Amino acid sequence: MKAVTWQGPRKISVDTVPDPVIQRPNDAIIEVTSTAICGSDLHLYEVLGPFMTPGDIVGHEPMGRVVEAGPESNVRPDDRVVIPFQIACGNCYFCAQGLQTQCETTQVTDQGSGAQLFGYSELYGSVPGGQAQYLRVPHADYGPIKVRDELPDHRYLFLSDVLPTAWQAVAYAQRSPGDSVAVLGLGPIGQFAARIAKHQGLTVYAIDPVAERREMAARHGVLVYDNSASSVDAIRDATGGRGPDAVIDAVGMEAHGDSQSALAKLAQRSVQFLPDKLGQPVMDKAGVDRLAALYTGIELVRRGGTLSLSGVYGGQASPLPMLSLFDKQIQVTMGQANVKRWVNEILPLVEAPDDPLGVDDFVTHRMPIDQAPAAYEMFQKKDDGCIKVVLEPQRTH
């Protein structure tokens, strides 16, 4: 089969690799019909190289049809399914708490990490990912989300990651209708976090430096601002001088915008050129994120408000302004999205004829899998109005 593989920092290739096979009774194999490139994939492309091995199959936002099912799986051949990005058992203590990202059965204990993730480095189990023509799905007795046949893939695909991540970001903001929220970053997660918050009756402000991203959000009733100090002031003025009730940081570890972030960017890139055995301890113990978005959120949110982090952070030594956090009495919530905790609330919305979350207005590029290297570069550089790329592994051209 063809698969998208990591070959080094900023180096992605499409290779022919062995087809996956059933390894356990609760496995399934799916033929992947759509698979998306996530902002988190760019962290592998740019930052997390010390935890990658050339040839690793990447990607964690797939859907398709079952072609083979183990006897203890919960699917049958030809079932149409979406695959959550995390691998969870559904039976352990944490799964019962709705914390599937902490699944005790699949925790990567040798790395001190939570549940295994598809296509996401040694940190999360080195499980082959979903940017491929076929995918082995462990724990197919629990993980796959069965969907109907009538609607196109893009109505369902983002149940794998983007929609639950955005939904959790809004849920963790702990707000009620009539409250206000600011979203930092209008990439895929920020787009849907803003739309979900608007759908739930919040007044939504959003900041992003890219005009096309602001224009997309504005089509869905979001009040948009560019990435400048005056934007922070404008949002504060619009909220009675206090700041919004909550801020959602949908940017994460690769933010741009201040001198600390510039230095962290240099450090992140420098680590890529160390041998893995040297680079891993540096990232494990001394990794520093680019924190411009986080600092903006702390500055902008009102006193007593909530800061909800959905952008991925990976540093162990990132400096935090504890005085400001404590003095402003800010509640901070965060974490990988627990996909199956939220799916039942989201599924009726993606199937609704009126498309209340605007899923039909989200994908900007559809490309065959052979064009994945160009797609990664375009997404990383934000060229050609690129907001969300969907790869179609069964498409030939």
UniProtKB/TrEMBL annotation:
User: Any idea which GO molecular function terms this record carries?
Assistant: metal ion binding
**Domain of life, source organism:** Bacteria
Q: Which residues form the Alcohol dehydrogenase-like C-terminal domain?
A: 188-261
Q: Which InterPro entries match?
A: ADH-like_C, ADH-like_N, GroES-like_sf, NAD(P)-bd_dom_sf
Cofactor dependence: Zn(2+)
Q: Name one Pfam family in it.
A: ADH_N
Domain (Alcohol dehydrogenase-like N-terminal): residue spans on this chain: 25-143
The UniProt keyword set, sorted, is: Metal-binding, Zinc
PANTHER family according to UniProt: DEHYDROGENASE, ZINC-CONTAINING, PUTATIVE (AFU_ORTHOLOGUE AFUA_2G02810)-RELATED (PTHR42813:SF2), ZINC-TYPE ALCOHOL DEHYDROGENASE-LIKE (PTHR42813)
Q: What is the protein name for this chain? A: Zinc-binding dehydrogenase
Species assigned in the record: Nesterenkonia salmonea
